[in-house]
Amino acid sequence: MRHARRRIVRRVTRLAAVGGLLLGAGMVTQAVASEPSGSPGAPNASVRSAAGTGSDLVERLGTARTAGTWIGSDGRPVVAVTDEDAAAEVRRAGATAKVVRHSMRELKSATATLRSAPRVAGTAWMLDYRSNEVVVRGDSTVSAADWSELTEVADGIGGFVRMERTKGTFTTRLNGAQAMLSTAGRCSAGFNVTDGETDFILTAGHCGPDGSVWFADNEGNEQVGKTVTGSFPGNDYSLIQYANGRAGQGADVVAVGDGQGVRITGTGEASVGQRVFRSGSTTGLRDGEVTGLNATVNYPEGTVTGLIETNVCAEPGDSGGPLFSEGIALGVTSGGNGDCNAGGTTFFQPVGQALSALGVRLITSTPEQGASPAPSASGTQSAIAPPDAAEPGASAPVSGEDVSALLSRLADPQNIGPGLLVIAGSLVALVATRWIRTEQDRKAYQRYYSATWG
Known about the structure:
- This protein is of the alpha+beta class.
- The protein has eight helices and 25 strands.
- The protein has helices at 2-33, 46-61, 84-92, 104-116, 144-157, 351-358, 403-411, 413-453; strands at residues 66-71, 77-81, 96-99, 123-128, 133-138, 161-165, 171-172, 179-182, 185-188, 191-194, 199-203, 213-215, 223-231, 237-242, 253-257, 260-263, 266-267, 275-280, 284-299, 302-310, 322-325, 328-339, 343-350, 361-362, 395-397.
């Protein structure tokens, strides 16, 4: 009877140990498969939800009672309102309300007055929702006389127009994520788009006039395509039709340098306070924050309106490249000032506005959104990487396993420590039960033969 109980205990212990091994292995596998903590990838999906809530409230309450929305430091939407009733409605919706003096209608009226003034190259303005002001900036090329005249216009509007001088110059930024060259200069591919029959590259409009032929090499042997339409100044977007009509394999992925890519899953509108990423051939992948919307920039070539303003740095060679967040396409690089050593301001043409005007749609990783069915690869790779480059919205190796990232996950006790402890405990239990059984068998053997050999 006693031996039967021992056998039962040993079997239960072995089963528990085997179960522990399986559980621990599953925990480790899940930890390895998950994104590393502190990853530089895009923010989580709650940002999109917060931005959507804020935009819905602004649309519902109207421009006379609101003055914009942004994402607060806690990740919650903040809505600027002009009265307490609107503030109460915002709070009921789960957002934060900030009562301000000037409505969106007043802010936009101020920018309309600025646009009607004599144009001054090297100036820009945007709506600063958080300070409830219109911010006017002048770069180093703006003369004292021109700045004085513009300041008089601002003073006539009211005290909610803030004047700032900035370093550097506001210029368009040529080149970008995947380089394309033509007689018009060097530019970058932004996103791949399609009209359902033919595929195109969406890039900046200042990259070149209609008819510009683009190549992927300096010798002009690898033709990418030809610019077929665009808008600049006024807007800053253009379409380059692929020479073979197809974007190539993995057209839903944009390259971000170092053999990595980000899978694009759709388009969206930028929100003030949103963390964003930009890719360019000169400075690679950079991130920052959206600081303003509906910005107007007076480039030397002309005025462009409706731009996204960010504090993401950029340099000549980054123009036309993609702006995105969480795998959502937001814009293409237009221009700015400063550099990636001292920092600066960079403006982007919103993608949604360009797609609507051009009558095309983004090629994404979602088949129902009209992505081209695995066409043959093109010569330039069109600011893309292979289709296995990344999960939607994530930055990942374009091919193979990222060994360093895997090792960092394995070395992080917060990720796999519990799983390894379970595995170690289970192994100890298995070894212990095996040793106990062996020792018992040995003693039984000795007792039997010692009695026999007497």
